[in-house]
Amino acid sequence: xxxxxxxxxxxxxxxxxxxxxxxxxxxxxxxxxxxxxxxxxxxxxxxxxxxxxxxxxxxxxxxxxxxxxxxxxxxxxxxxxxxxxxxxxxxxxxxxxxxxxxxxxxxxxxxxxxxxxxxxxxxxxxxxxxxxxxxxxxxxxxxxxxxxxxxxxxxxxxxxxxxxxxxxxxxxxxxxxxxxxxxxxxxxxxxxxxxxxxxxxxxxxxxxxxxxxxxxxxxxxxxxxxxxxxxxxxxxxxxxxxxxxxxxxxxxx
Length: 253
Known about the structure:
This protein is of the alpha+beta class.
């Protein structure tokens, strides 16, 4: 294919100036790059460092750049990786962790201190909410009243994990079958869990379904607790850092 001179100039500008411009814009968002010079065995080298607080999660980059982009931010991030402006920071460990959304605590394995205690607390809060709703409904019925169009927490929980309502307590504990077996809060007793990770997975699905249901008002404070993926993080590549640090780029802002 033969290109005339203006087309070649345009291609040159795209291939060489656009990555520089993107590096500049990303650099403006990330902040100044630190370049340290040193020598070893009489050989000089540059150690381009990116402090940890300059690593940005995908959501943070999208939030910062979304209004400036005409394309989907995720696509742009992928393109920036492809042209060596951004690089993904390696994910530590297995790439997953356990998140308690109520306490905002993270656990990287179920063996960590505090995991089992928090899981018991969250499940107990849910079971007490179920019991209190059912007690209220029984008292209302005994007084000749009725609570119309009030969905049952137990039924929503059962539907979330495809079991019958009578199996909910066992699905969440693995040791108890009846709601009456849940210790009273003032008794200072703990429920026992069989296979805690399986119970957590059930609890996580159940609570998400309860929260998503418009007709349920939770009587107690409990939030999802389960496995989550570590967020992708990105930082400037050494090439982009060098472009940002080299002030040959004019101010494009």
